[in-house]
User: Which sequence fits this backbone?
């Protein structure tokens, strides 16, 4: 499968990978982010230079990698904004996630899923992105990085977080 993340979704994945790497390796988030963006940029450059080696079969697929490299600065900038929000509000982000788990043990959630939740929650807390877009993007990322079951869990948790943050009206069940 060709690398599935491009544009703003790629930026979100860079944030997810940075949080994941930082926490897994016990390194500062800034270092993890620098390592992740350099590694990804180098990968995209290799794909553009030698597409057949990376199973890029169509001109459209290749164009996505080229477009991302042309827009690399804005992609990195968007990821960086999400990570700045996370860094400045780390405790609040984790607290709101934990508050909206509804019976799920936080410690039993896989690290990649926690990183997706932290990224999406940070974006909802600090950027003007519509919460529905944030949730949809997080679910799609989860489907590619984890499982369909995990994606459903992420969707439910983020839906509750959007309500908790006052971004979504609470729907009364009859």
Assistant:
């Amino acid at each position: 499968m060709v690398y599935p993340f491009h544009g703003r979704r790629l930026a979100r994945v860079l944030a997810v990978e940075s949080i994941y790497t930082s926490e897994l390796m016990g390194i500062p988030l800034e270092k993890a982010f620098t390592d992740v963006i350099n590694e990804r940029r180098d990968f995209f450059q290799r794909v553009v230079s030698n597409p057949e080696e990376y199973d890029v079969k169509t001109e459209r697929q290749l164009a996505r990698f080229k477009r991302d490299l042309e827009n690399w600065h804005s992609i990195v900038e968007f990821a960086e904004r999400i990570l700045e929000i996370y860094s400045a509000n780390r405790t609040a982000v984790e607290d709101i996630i934990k508050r909206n788990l509804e019976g799920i043990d936080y410690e039993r959630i896989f690290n990649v899923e926690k990183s997706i939740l932290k990224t999406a929650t940070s974006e909802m807390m600090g950027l003007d992105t519509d919460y529905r877009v944030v949730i949809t993007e997080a679910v799609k990322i989860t489907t590619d990085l984890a499982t369909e079951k995990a994606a459903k869990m992420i969707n439910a948790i983020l839906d509750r977080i959007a309500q908790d943050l006052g971004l979504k009206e609470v729907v009364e069940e009859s």
In short: Helices lie at 7-25, 29-49, 59-70, 72-88, 90-99, 111-126, 131-145, 148-164. Residues 7-164 form a domain with the N-utilizing Substance Protein B Homolog; Chain A fold (CATH 1.10.940.10).
